Structures are given as structure tokens and as C-alpha cells.
Amino acid sequence: MKNKIKNICDFYAITHRLKNTLRSGWVTCGVPADRIESVAEHIYSSQMLALVIITEFDLKVNIAKVCLLLAVHELGECIIGDLPATGCPVSKDEKHKMEMDAVEQILKPIANSKIIKDLFIEFEERITPESKFAYLIDKLECDFQCKFYEEKGWLNFDKLTPNEVQLDRIKKRQAQGYKKFSDFWIDGDIDRFYKNDVIFTEIANYLKSNKIF
Description:
Layout: H1 2-15, H2 24-28, H3 39-56, H4 63-72, H5 77-80, H6 92-107, H7 114-125, H8 129-151, H9 164-175, H10 181-194, H11 198-209
Helix pairs in contact: 3-4, 3-8, 4-7, 4-8, 7-8, 8-10, 8-11, 10-11
């Protein structure tokens, strides 16, 4: 019994780190340090977004499974921190291995840890309807956060301190006539992630055209 209680406390302590792990992409976007969301805040907001989209559109996906997938999808970041999606210092394969190694380390003492590990792997593989949906939610939540920062006046092209990969992408978009950072950001996600999904495309376009916060 004591070992199980210790394992519970240790697991909570290590996942608690996500409350103070900042989303690194917003650092290079010039958002004030005291306003940058934590990974834990991103997880919570993703779950709330998933809940309302599933219920509003009566989608035939397992709502509980989606929330569990989102709960664990950043688990590896408890150890490796938040690595930026664009201009990451390691390759995609290296990042995946780092995350998997971290998840293995975190879950090693936990009885029946396969339950949690399988959820993490399911999200990463994006084969099931729930994992595909959760992956799009993960991206859409960033679009909402981008819009929030822009409306607060904390995010625009003049505030950026991008890495080389980000700078190249930004210059190409500005050459296309983009004036608002959120339009550039959201259109990029529509092109890469949502173009085959009507609901996510419509939500993203609504974000672009309306004041949200």
C-alpha cells in the first residue's frame, strides 16, 4: 500500500511540472513572459474545446477517450520540456524517441501503466477516430490562443524573435500580403491540418473573421 501511495504522489509531482512548463512557441512570438500559457493550461483548454465541439455537433467519437488522450498527450514534456513545432533543435524522429523515453521513465513505477502508455501511443499514431480528432483539437486550441494573444495586443509581426525556420515561413506569408499574425497562423493550420475537415475549417475561418475574447 505504501509503495502505491508513493507512486501516486511521485506521478502527481512530476506531472505537476506542466503547470510551470511554458509553451515555447509563444516565447519566440514575443508574448510577455508572465502571459505565456503553461502546457497544463493548454491541456485543459484543449479538453474544454473538444467537449463543446463534440456535443455541439453531436460527433460520433468517444468523448471520454478524447479527453483522456488530450490529458496524456504532453506527458513526455514533464521531462524533456516543450520543444517548438517549427524550428525544433532535434529531428521529428529524435523528438518522438525523447518523448517515448520520458514517458517510459515516468510510468515505470506505476502498476498497470500500459493503460496510460497506450493512450499516449494512440494519440501519437493518429489511427483511431478519437486520436485523429484529438490531434486536430491540439492544433485548433493553438489557433484560439494565438487569437487571444493578438486581441490582447501581445502578438504581432513586430514582436517576433523567430528562429530561422520560422522566419523563412513568416517572410513568405508577409510577401503574400498578410497583415495580421493570426491570419497567417490560422491559414497555415487550415492548409496543413483542417482542409479535409469541414467543421475545423469553419471554426478556424470564424476565428479569423471575428473578435473572440
